[in-house]
Amino acid sequence: MGGTRRAVLGTVLALCVLAGCDARVEPPEVGPAGVDFDTEVVEFDPSGFNGPPFAALIDSESSAEAFAGWFASRRGSASTLPRVVQQPELLGDTDTYAYLAMVTSTGCRAPTSAEWGRVGTDLRPEFLGGVDHPECVRAYTPFVVFKVPRAAIDGVTTVGGVAADRDGPAETVGSVELSPTAPAFTPREVTDPARRTELADELAATGSDRTRVLATLDHTSGLLDKYGPTTLRRYAFPVRSCPDDLLVLHVGRTELRARALARVDAALTCEAPTTHLAVFDVRSLHIPDGARPVS
Questions:
Q1: Taking a C-beta distance cutoff of 8 angstroms, is the pair 123, 107 a contact?
Q2: Closest CA to 148 of 86, 101, 183, 214
Q3: Which of the four pLDDT bands, split at 50, 70 and 90, describes residue 264?
Q4: pLDDT of residue 3
Q5: What does the alpha-carbon distance between residue 114 and residue 12 come to, in Å, rounded to a whole number?
Q6: What does DSSP assign to residue 60?
Q7: pTM, whole model, 2 decimals?
Q8: Angle between the 210-218 and 193-204 helix axes, to the nearest 10 degrees?
Q9: How far apart are CA 180 and CA 182, in angstroms?
Q10: DSSP state, 268?
Q11: Which backbone phi and psi does 198 adopt, to 5 degrees?
Q12: Half-sphere exposure of 223 (CA within 13 A, CB side)
């Protein structure tokens, strides 16, 4: 389960050889100069998590909590969850280290190891080894968690060419500031457009801008564009936040809870948070049975 692996670019070089490249070509950049890329594999399961692929960067307590949301909907006992979900302290010391957690599909091949490299601002995890079988009941979805020095992810924007995720399975659709006279409304599911209209009317009755509220409730999202409305659920929450705060939705086994997190790179300091309507999309398969939105 443990051990130390150094980030490698062997696969990149091997592909170059197969393609007939000049063997003298320098390998691609691997992160900032002088960074020690010694990497500990905290958890590796070649069969893995039977669920949709994801790649999450975990570099704070909040991102560790959001990461656990990928597994909240799993059936069975807590003992069937990955160790890093059962024991979140395994993802500790985020002042010094960061973690890359990943699930992907390797078809009918159960890999035997996992390694990663960095090319510019992109992390390149790979699952290596194993034998491809002509057929299998379901594709292998191996799961790995790498522990790396925080400096190794400085400037990282993508994992395998896809935008790096720190916020779990939910996507922030948008937010809008509510009227100072508006009471905190009850968080609720607003997947049905009729529920959105109902909430817009409720908030407008206490002074909020109905047009802006409804536009936020109806706004599109990356998840909506990719998966369509029939596989998503949309939720609305009242959140005390500043304009530049990061809004995240934490998915648990029994509840969904929105939080506002201050951005370290915010242009302005906000001294007086106000009540905002925050809207999130989540794929239905990530919502545990019976989980409810709460304040």
A1: no
A2: 101
A3: low
A4: 37
A5: 15
A6: S
A7: 0.81
A8: 160
A9: 6
A10: S
A11: -60, -45
A12: 22
| Residue 64, both tokens | 């560790």
Q: How far apart are CA 229 and CA 236, in angstroms?
A: 16
Give the integer Cα–Cα distance in Å for 261 and 66: 12
Q: How many whole angstroms separate alpha carbon 76 and alpha carbon 67? A: 19
Taking the CB of residue 41, how many other CB atoms lie within 10 A of it? 18
Give me the count of residues in the chain: 295
- CA nearest to 123, candidates 23, 37, 247: 37
User: Would you say 193 and 236 are in contact if contact means Cβ atoms under 8 Å apart?
Assistant: no
CA distance 142 to 145: 10
pLDDT of residue 179: 93
Note whether 92 and 59 are within 8 A (CB): no
Residue-level pLDDT at 77: 66
Token look-up 């919502």 returns 287
Angle made by CA atoms 178, 278, 187, in degrees to the nearest 5: 90
**Helix or strand or coil: residue 216?**
helix
Which residue type is seen at 226? K
For the chain, first and last CA: distance in Å? 38
Instruction: Look up residue 257 and give its amino acid.
Output: R
Return d(Cα 118, Cα 24) in angstroms, integer.
Answer: 20
Phi, psi dihedral angles at 225 (to 5 degrees): -65, -35
Please determine, for residue 18, whether its predicted confidence score (pLDDT) is greater than 80: no
- Look up residue 253 and give its DSSP letter: S
